[in-house]
Amino acid sequence: MARVGVAFGGRSVEHQVSIRSARTVIGALTGAGHEVVPLGISQDGRWLDRELSQRAVKGDLDNLGAMEGELAPTLRHLLDSSIEVLFPVVHGTWGEDGTLQGLCEMLDLPYVGASVGASALAMDKVLCKRQLESCGLPVVEYGWVRGSDFEAHPERALKALPRLPFPLFVKPSIGGSSVGVRKVGSPEELQEAVDFALRFDTTALVERGVQGRELECSVLGDQQLEASVVGEILPGNLFYDYEDKYLLDTAELEIPADVSPRVTERIRSLAVDSMTAIGGHGMARVDFLLEGETGPATTEINTLPGFTSISMYPKLWEEAGLPLPRLVDRLVEIAFAVHLRRRSLDDGIKDWLAQLGA
Predict the structure, then answer these.
(1) What DSSP assignment string belongs to 126-176?
(2) What is the DSSP letter of 278?
(3) Domain 141-208 adopts which CATH fold?
(4) Quick one: pLDDT at residue 119?
């Protein structure tokens, strides 16, 4: 068993969701026999001491507000923790976008989940779609607007978009939990929706609105990826937005989804192919839209999915016969295996350079 640090909280809008996920993960890791060190991160990015972190885990604190003092010195709480592996549960930006993963790489610290590159690629919706397209995988038709172009000439920037039928969905290219997303029913609404999305990122994604079913599949593994059963989201709102996910609690999950065996296997295959396309390993929840008879299209790859009581990722694996304690234990094992392989490659490069020098 390992000494596992669980990082949670953070600077993104998913701060409170992250704390809820951490409580679930810590309980599962403890149940699997690991020693757990909670590592809370405040809303302004400061790493917190064990006492404050533990209070959040126990439920005494629902958020970790801004703290006084310099940020850099607070890293000592991570550096002095003597953990063997980090399990990041910091959803959204500054957590699942490659930044926290990069810190672990610099510290030579094994960590759960996708690499720096795969994390960053999956977080950027436009770049991820372009990568999936280049690998021949189906995605919903889309275009994008750069903030600099929109600021200089809004009408020209919108005119350059592909001709897509309404309704459209407009989203920040980087972001999570449906923050900044709007459904647009007419050309008159498009400019305002793009302007709104650009409040949250420098690029806005514009997608064709698919009137279809929202299906999800979990992926797990290292060099050999596995797909879970398929589940379906039944939104309580007009679409599965932030309010529906975290405030109203009206959305329903159907596990397994009521789809044909052919569709199920197609989605499971696409989930693995999508994860492979971005060079991912560890874990991911891959989201799909199923429109009539046209088949599923990948909409998003979430490389650090939620672990709350209503989160689809662990529920899908539980249905597939992998309970939560075994799931988190497997993720820790993968983290160590990936780290060992990276270190071996680094040693090989150094040996090669030494031979050249000789």
Answers:
(1) HHHHHHHHHTT--B--EEEEEHHHHHH-HHHHHHTS---PSSEEEEESB-S
(2) T
(3) Dna Ligase; domain 1 (3.30.1490)
(4) 98
